[in-house]
Specification:
This protein has 137 residues and is mainly alpha-helical. It contains four helices and two strands; from the N terminus they run αααβαβ. The protein folds into two domains: 79 residues; 34 residues, no CATH class.
Length: 137
């Protein structure tokens, strides 16, 4: 597959994921509103007086739900924009120290050789200690 085909498929996938995110947010907001309506009805059924929905019940539910969901999305997006090193540190990674173990020295050598072959500067290498998963992302 050529570069332009990859780029086109990546853009299509991005649009699909954004649509799925918007749909998930809408479903979540409706679910929260539905749960609050059921809770209000249950409370009203237990009380001897008639309790109508307060003015702005729907707007408050939707507004607060959207504020929380989109606020969380904004915080996580901001964290991801801080770079890969910050993301790695958030999951418990530490900077590579080649002098600590033989395995870390080998990793440093492999990274150095790849950078020389690619004519690129050496990136900051992070290691996830004590994990069985693939130790890179």
């Amino acid at each position: 597959m050529k570069f332009w085909d990859h780029q086109h498929s990546a853009r299509s996938e991005t649009r699909r994921l954004l649509l799925a995110f918007a749909l998930a947010v809408a479903v979540l907001v409706l679910a929260v509103h539905g749960a609050l309506v059921l809770a209000w009805w249950a409370m009203a059924a237990l009380l001897p007086v008639h309790l109508p929905f307060p003015a702005g019940f729907l707007a408050a539910n939707v507004g607060v739900s959207l504020l929380l969901v989109l606020g969380g999305w904004w915080v996580e997006t901001s964290n991801l924009r801080a770079g890969g090193v910050k993301l790695a540190q958030r999951v418990g990674a530490r900077e590579l120290r080649p002098s600590v173990t033989h395995a870390e020295q080998r990793l440093a050598n492999v990274v150095d050789e790849l950078c020389i072959a690619a004519h690129m500067p050496r990136p900051q290498v992070m290691v996830l200690p004590r994990t069985d998963a693939i130790n890179a992302f």
